[in-house]
Design brief:
This protein is an all-alpha fold and 181 residues long. The chain contains seven helices and no strands. Helix 2 packs parallel to helix 4.
């Protein structure tokens, strides 16, 4: 989780605002993903036995995703490159979520994770593509800031909606009124 901080220290000269914001968001994403992973593995520790191929592939994908997160963090001094590596990390995480959902061991909240990951990918893509889009008359830093806002809003929404209770990963059904007690 310290990779974004390391990436900031690697920058020679003035550190652009976009690099600080991207470092903060990568750190926040890693913490959020870590908490989600902790809930998943906590369920396994409580007896939800998983030794199937799907679980093993999932762990391998998690390790690959974490590696890309580290690389994204240490390259925050170059936001487009960092965002491209963040897209790789998020894409691998998305594949893991889909692999889990295809089996009978999936969680309902994983569908929310798919939508959240789509938001993260959109923000990261805008940052990663900002140099190419700049040639179309759009300022790269403005595009990067919009991408950072998309990442920040998506992360905020996911944190607000998260159900990190130890009893499970199922969000409450707010459409149903509480039972009289």
């Amino acid at each position: 989780m310290a990779a974004p901080l390391t990436g900031l220290f690697e920058i020679d000269g003035a550190v652009p605002l976009e690099s600080y914001a991207l470092a903060f968001l990568i750190f926040g994403l890693r913490v959020k993903f870590w908490i989600d992973d902790m809930d998943f593995f906590d369920d396994l520790g409580k007896g939800a036995e998983r030794r199937d191929l799907r679980f093993r592939v999932g762990v391998l994908l998690a390790l690959v995703s974490w590696t890309f997160f580290i690389l994204a963090g240490v390259t925050v001094g170059r936001p487009p490159m960092s965002a491209g590596l963040l897209m790789a990390a998020l894409s691998v995480s998305l594949v893991w979520i889909v692999v889990e959902q295809l089996g009978d061991k999936g969680y309902e909240v994983q569908l929310d994770w798919v939508w959240g990951t789509a938001g993260y990918l959109a923000g990261a893509a805008l940052i990663a593509l900002s140099p190419r889009l700049e040639t179309a008359g759009l300022a790269a830093t403005d595009l990067q800031r919009v991408g950072l806002m998309i990442l920040a809003v998506t992360l905020a929404v996911e944190i607000i909606r998260a159900d990190w209770t130890p009893t499970g990963l199922k969000p409450p059904d707010l459409a149903k009124p509480p039972k009289p007690g």
